[in-house]
Amino acid sequence: MNCKMTDSTINLIATGIIYNSNVHIEMTAESTYEPVGNGTETSLFRWLQGADLPAHDILKQKEGKIMVQFAHDPIAKRSLIGVKMVENGQEIVRIFVKGAPEKVIPNCMTVSGPDGT
Questions:
Q1: Do residue 68 and residue 28 come from a single domain?
Q2: How many structural domains comprise the chain?
Q3: In whole numbers, what is the pLDDT of the chain averaged over residues?
Q4: What's the predicted TM-score (pTM) here?
């Protein structure tokens, strides 16, 4: 990917996109992987594919790891998903939230910049 973000920041964004979406991948008649689902989510998946990230392979890793999921709440203007992951050799549950920035950001304890700080 040609950008100024660190690999860990790119990985975190990609993981958030993959885990906090309902997209599924279908094989087209031309033998290409095509994301199917919500327009915004499929656009994000196409961005991942354009960045040569194997979204279709990573998507398979979701199976059996979702611990909790809350659909979009029109009042809170956000949705979230809790995913069981292994990080630095420890099993953790990471919460991914997506929604309106004015609703999500005020609830964040930390924010990462493009350089990972």
A1: no
A2: 2
A3: 84
A4: 0.72
